[in-house]
Amino acid sequence: MSAALLLLPAVLILAAGFLYPVALLGRISLNRTSDIGAMEPDLTLATFEKVVGDDFTWELAWNTATLAAGSALAATALALPVVLLIRAAPPRWRGLLSLMAIAPLLVSGTARIVGWLAILGDQGLINAMLEGLGLTSEPVRLINNWTGVRIGLTESLMPYACLVLIAGLGRLDPRLEEAAATLGATRTKTFLRVTLPLAAPALLAAFLLTFVLGVSAFITPRLMGGGRVFVVATEIFDLALETVDWPAAAALAMLLLGALAVALVLRTALMRSARA
Amino acid sequence: MRRSAFLAAFTAFGIAASAPAFAQGGQPGGQMTLQAYAGIFRDNYTEVVVNPFTARSGTQVQYFDGGTSAQMLGRLRAQRADPQTDVVIMDVTTAAVACAEGLVERIDASVLPVIGELGPMAREAGGACGPAVTYDHLVMVYDTRAVQPAPTRWAAMWDPAQRGRVAVSAPPNIQGLALTAILAKAAGGDWRNINAAMPMLRELAPNVQTFTPNPDGYTLILNDQVRFATGWNARAQLYHDQSQGRIGVVLPEEGTAFQINTINVVANAKNRAQALAFVAHALSAEAQKAFTERMFYGPTNPNAQVSPAALNRTALAPQFRERIVGVDWEEMVRLRDQWNQRWRREVIAASSR
């Protein structure tokens, strides 16, 4: 009884802040849109049929999945050496280094993207350096395209990957690596044969978490894609705030939510099997 | 000190004294809430339209920053059962949705006689609901420091020397829809004929740096990111003045299209009498003249005696009227999805960077 009471505030907050809006979204997705864009109350799956039957939706799904997978993989791969460095550092420095690794989370996503625009833009820092060194005569297109979005999303996902890896690798027993070294293994061999296999569950967890975050990413594709990068989140934005087709936006959002729920279930199953 | 106190008291007395006089004409004091665009629109509209209304009527107007028209529509939908605003100014395509959903009142000259003063296009724009309150139009903006001589045609954006230096808002943004209609009219004689516009848009694509200028094309020009962009005249004219002429504004020879804002009384508004009085004021020749001279939106009330200098910076100037492409925005909404898909597959896809 007391446990249920303790849970009650959290359940109420979850119900008001998540379940109710999602239920409302589900209800809107069952409405109809007239040819001038007016929303007509209904209880129909016609909008879902239209959305699922549109080839462009599947193109969006593919774009979203590949962007999220690529960025999650890159973020995890880049976070690994950072976390290994933190792990190898003297204990008194580890807290500060960990804080630095996740510090980007303290800055708003939009502000970070403005920073990237200044660095990657056609008149940005990198292009100015390349031209100054005489390596290029025309700007290298690093932004307003898929390249820019991949760079920006990887950077924005890295702190999350670091968080997971710091927690996961922190539990590894360093004596196992010391034992390998004592038995004559080189550093590379120790890393490949001991550290990496032991870190596999943490790497998988980092990848899956960043993948799920990448699937729902909106700000980076919107601000760094230059209108050339179409993913599910940008399409929902356009449907809701440009064409004002709320039923279609809600249907697409419900489908994305369903896909994320499936991904989370798979993640949990994979993590369990990895631990086993 | 005494002098300023006296002046403040005198002004307050003047406002208080004039309010009952306004009320005798059937328009009460009290308060109301206006939902409209934020930023420079708010600043200027408040100064030359809202404040004079308050001074005359005694009605306190709370200006609520509505964001985009779509956001305002969302708010009207969410507050359908308990409206928190009384008057809304929004784009004509979004207002048509609000009208069809019963979120705003149906209104005509029998309710508001001033509607009878408006031009036919202004009356028709709102359908059965509120009429047009401002006309804006699509313009080409450019960096006067980098582009010389001053361009006169949209074709200037097609110059291969401008590769990567152009910002165009693609559909579903209405700037992209308007540009397509203008090019279609110029190439094929009918704004609906997207097939006539597509080859030109495909040719333009490699020059385009971004199809979603953030925060807008004017800022990208001022930050040296691009040299050309599409824009709306009123804001472009203000940026031109604020940038000491750095932003150049062109109403191109191939044509332009209107962006129309309508003004509506929210259905079941809590302060309906004040709302009607405000709409009447906003559509009056006096308020229309003041706002055109301040921000260069075209007036919808032909009785507005706008100064020639201000009128020449709108599309209603005699020399520009023939360039206006008569886009029917209600019909455009029906074409929008198809145009959007064609842009994505044929224009944006041809512009890989």
Automatic annotation (TrEMBL), chain A:
Membrane-spanning parts: 60-84, 96-119, 194-219, 246-266
Source species taxonomy: Bacteria, Pseudomonadati, Pseudomonadota, Alphaproteobacteria, Acetobacterales
Domain ABC transmembrane type-1 per the UniProt entry, residue ranges: 61-267
Xref: PROSITE patterns: ABC_TM1 (PS50928)
InterPro entries: MetI-like (IPR000515), MetI-like_sf (IPR035906)
PANTHER family: ABC TRANSPORTER PERMEASE PROTEIN (PTHR42929:SF5), INNER MEMBRANE ABC TRANSPORTER PERMEASE PROTEIN YDCU-RELATED-RELATED (PTHR42929)
Domain of life (superkingdom): Bacteria
Keyword DNA damage listed: no
Assigned keywords, A-Z: Cell membrane, Membrane, Transmembrane, Transmembrane helix, Transport
One CC-aspect GO term: plasma membrane
Keyword match Membrane: yes
GO biological process: transmembrane transport
Intracellular or extracellular location(s): Cell membrane
SUPFAM superfamilies, per database record: MetI-like
Protein name: Polyamine ABC transporter permease
Membrane topology: Multi-pass membrane protein
Pfam families: BPD_transp_1
UniProtKB/TrEMBL annotation, chain B:
Statement: the UniProt record of this protein carries the keyword Signal: yes
TM region(s), chain numbering: none
Pfam families membership: SBP_bac_8
GO molecular function ontology, one term from the record: thiamine pyrophosphate binding
InterPro entries in alphabetical order: SBP, Sperm_putr-bd
Organism domain of life: Bacteria
GO BP annotations listed: polyamine transport; thiamine transport
Protein name, UniProt field: ABC transporter substrate-binding protein
Species the sequence originates in: Falsiroseomonas bella
